[in-house]
Amino acid sequence: MNWMLLLLLLPLAGAALVAFMPEKSARQVATLVTLLCCVPFLAMVGQFDWARSGVDQFQTTAVWFEPLGLSFRLAADSITMLLVGLTVLLGPICVVASYTAISERQKTYYAWLLVLQTAMTGVFLARDMVLFYVFFEFTLVPMFVLISLYGSTNRKYAAVKFFLYTFTGSILTLAGLAYVALEAARANGFWSFDFEALKTAARGMTFDQQKWVFIALMVGFAVKVPVFPFHTWLPLAHTEAPTAGSVVLAGVLLKLGTYGIFRFALQFTPVAAYEYAPALAVLGVVGIIYAGLICWVQSDIKKLVAYSSVSHLGFCVIGLFALNGVGLSGSVMYMINHGLSTGALFLLIGMIYERYHTREFKKLGGLASQMPVWSTFMVFFAMASVGLPGLNGFISEFMCLLGTFQAGGTTWTEFGMIPGRFGDASLLPGATFGNLGPWFAAFAAVGMVVTAIYILYMVGKIVWGEFKAPGHSAHAHNHAKGHGHDNHHGAAHADHAHGPLPRDLSGREIAVLVPLAVACLWLGLYPSPVLRTLEEPVAMVVTQVRADVLRNAQAALPADPQTADAHTPALLQQAATITEPGRR
Amino acid sequence: MSGLAGQLAIMHETLGSLALAAGDAAHAQPRFGTGVGAKFDVPRLFGLIPFIPLLACALCGLCAAMKVKTKLPAAITVGCLLASFGLTIGLYAQVHANPGDFAIIHAFEWINFQWGQSEAQSLTANFSFYADSLTALWMLFVTGLATLIALYASEYMSHDVGQGYCRFFMAFSLFVFSMACLVMGDNLALLFLGWEGVGLCSYLLIGYFYKKPSAVAAAKKAFVVNRIGDLGLSLGVMLAFVQFGSLEYAEIFRKAEPFLALARDGQWQDIPWTVQLIPILLTIGAFGKSAQLPLYVWLPDAMEGPTPVSALIHAATMVTAGVYLVARMFPLFLVSEHALTIVAWGGALTALLAATIGMAQFDIKRIMAYSTVSQLGYMFCGLGVMGVMGGPAHVFTHAFFKAMLFLACGAVMHGFAGQLDLRKLSGLGKMPGWRIVTVAMFVGCINLAGVPFITAGFYSKDTILGDAFANPAMVPIGWILLITAGLTAYYTFRVFFRVFVGPAYYEPGDELHAHDDHSHDHAHANKDHGHDSHGHGHSAWQPHPPGWAINTVLILLTILSFAAIVTVFKADGWLYRMVTNSSAGAGIAADHHHKFFGFDAHAAMKVVSGIVAIAGIAVAFVLHYSGRTSAATSKADSLVPMLGPIPRWAQNKWYVDEFYHFLFVRPLWLLSVVFAAIDKVLVDGLVNVFGWVPKALAKTARPLQNGVLHDYALRMAGGVALLLLIIVLMVNRGDRTSAAASIPPTDNSIGTLPAAPAAVDPIAVSLDPIRAKAQEAVR
After folding, report:
1. ipTM confidence score
2. CA within 20 to 30 Å of B277's CA: A188, A274, B41, B45, which one?
3. Kind and range of the H or E element at B434?
4. Are B336 and B344 in contact (CB under 8 A)?
């Protein structure tokens, strides 16, 4: 039985089922289907050969359009497995979290949510470039619908901006990929969009070609991640999206960008990735601090969390461009961890919004005294977000920083940041191959402090203090004016058809949060099994990048010694001192 | 008084010469190397020491979920901590039997992976515990004091039974778990876990009374300031990893060995700067956690937390984590030319600054907080001047008497409805039921003041002073510390003479009204407690003396404070062996024998510091006790005008908080506002400018957004098909025209790609059928 195909198609079938079922049973069907998705996933986990976690497994190929070499090609390696696992985990959580929030047009809502899950699963499973791109773009449609039909006040603008911005970016990505396909076709004499074939062709390109392909790829992925300064669609989309939409957006959709960087930018164009690593890392570091500081002055809680995503994913990006084992593994872990903790934060904020119909710091406060259970979860996930050791966020953040710190450091002298003996990175015996260095880590680590500032600001405002909420207690005088947020636009809002929510969390809401909390604790205290599965794919990428960069540097050296890069000898020396990694 | 001093002087002569002889014996056999011996095995059972408190935390959490309304969480916590303490004694016995060696207890894997075969391509940081005598020393007082203070808290927090009680003991147990990880971890990552974990517990407990804005602000400040320190620490950890290829102590010490040899010979230039930088980065972390300049500002504010928390976390244990870090990493500090100097000067300046602030405060708990900052400065000096024993010894003795001082203050606060102003309390010793508190306070005060020969605090402080004067480079630090010792004696006894002796007088504190701050919903429940004041008029209010739990703990701590003398009495006593049999023992190599005006520094300090302490107490006696007739005023008030604005400045903490606010917080906030504006106007504005075309298109296409699913799907599929078509056309054109112009005019984005090479023949062949189809489609 092809569990993988089942995993991919089950939500789609569920969507069809929802469409034909009566309105009232939509959410039951959706819940059932998303929960059922766990079965094929667990079967896959059981069948997966974890000893060869870097190899594509469960390969499924069906010819799609022969003349162009298009095929329906699916497979999974450990990174795919992890990200699909995240998708499968968030599926039922999103559905169950929407029970009270979505009371109108339920069929449409749940059907699109299920379609979205198929699209996301497909992105991670696809091993054919066109198939990947179809899934990649197709995630936009359900998300567009979810935002524009079920969002808040400014939802139309947000949805259009989200769609157009990311779509424009991905067209460039497509152009880059198409160029690679073209190159591959030239080299092979036949068309193929298979990842492996494309990778071989792309790695064979000259640096000049790689450079442009890399830039084209990165534009799309950077918008998707989002990397500073391409991030402005995200806070808007997050703020306007319904809770489940935000959870999926933060949890999985942003990871499409980092996954794309990992799968394509690093593996197809390793030399360019190496060369431009410092530039990308600078954007990452700027994003960490810039977006982090912006969080601090937000008046809307959801916007704060949205900006925190931008800040957090900066760590993910620098980890990727560290191009060494620690950084890459940390980055993949970051994709998972950010999905868990930020997803949970969005859920928590959604729960507050359902109760008080506001997300403004001004109007909320001191919820600890009224909602102790909610507050406990809030503090827990806030700490996961801060990167408190023992919870998931720390592992990935620490590893991203450590990887960046380790990664070579040729840029020290190149940028002339510190003169004299302070510039000689080769003094560090543990430095690995890479193009970043301690300075990047040092600046990025400032993000640790900034994160603490804004997260504790948020917790201090809404969890601690004297209780304050619209329509409650004596502090409700603002309420009389009527708050703009209460323009529910019909569908956007719960009309409490399912009865008023209890003051503190209901059993359903707790059930939604507990799996995430358990996952956070597990990945924080015992990440080793997960890290182990990353060893092989990461080692493969590291080896490829180093081999290509080295070959490129060697090729450049004798050809024209005078114009060769100033740091090439240092680079060669550095690469030579590091032994070839391989499987354990 | 003079008779007593004379007797003490005679006692000093004999003891001083004894100590001198003992010191020389120790100097005679310096040990070189990192001070790390061989590895020995201990039962894995001892790996449970941190996890039993974690179990207590989980159980208290369960209590919270079950809405337990009894003192059950306290009982669980005390029981678990006691078990943990018992195991720690067992571990101590094992360590004691293997002096100089270390054991590693592996609990489970934490971060452990490898992406290549070489050593540099792996990262290992497990939940493994490193047990040597330094670990045992710290764990003994951490678990021991935690047990006692939990017992104390069971009574102190009784107002909150059924409300925050479970939460309090959850955080309390979690703190002990984190502290145990910090102290016992066998690698820097686990230390960091504990380091941040104690920070979290500190945050949760400072903000325990979360309805008080000041408590919330203090909690946030503590966490953020600590994070600044942690930034330095984490960079130090990373640098250590990149330098030594490992995060594990045993490995780091082994690889630091060659540098240590260079350092001993003074060949600093041969030690890479990166190695020398590690301890300096670690120092930043240590100064954050242990509240030293410039990061000390959070600790006084941390007194917003319940007093047992102040006693355990913000006086006895957590704040000594920085000292532990320096002691644990002492081999690395020795290979850095400047690190120990920085540690010493940071400590000395902090000690003096905090003492001056402490002199001018009126809140007795704040005074104790500043004295903690000041004494922590001493501890860093003890390590920084390369004395081995002084720092950890002072940590050990200070833990007992300072915890006791805080608990005594807490008893006062508890009994007088939160009153802590020394101008509103007087002569407590004369009131019924306050005898034990007064005695405990007195014992704590003489220890803190360093009354010679009869207090443990005297010996440990004296060791630090002696070490400072013995090191020729550190003599100025010695003088600073000596002055600070006098100030300490003064402000300590200022509290004692004002509050505990003299005419009996009290005013209850503001918790009369604010008490229900944290019991909003349960105002009526409070009436069940006999000691509560609700419903009574101000005049009928009576202080309630502490009950059995508080008194028992105070008595035990009084005994322990005295008992601690045994450990520090001799210069090569128990504490000396505990410290030197660990990685901190590396420092013995650097013994100094600088003279203090021709006398052996250690012996001379026995007299001089004793005199200074007595003098400080005498001044406090004259100014705050003799002839004082009211609580509010004393003779010191008449001196204040002579000092000009200085007392006011000191009382306002030299405006350091305001300075920081002006220099860092405000600009950062403004920067954030500017960034937010830039983001809105510039970054997003630019996007909107670029997006005006699609936006206009979207406007015209708005009718198409009808929400009909198949329409969207159709259009999506159409889009993909169109894109595929573009590729095909591109290939087509590229084939037809020259290689340089492979760009269809419809899509400029592809135009940024480099031109494809000319050799396209094979594709042309394979594409023929497609091209035909595509052209057909276009038509």
Report:
1. 0.88
2. A274
3. none
4. no
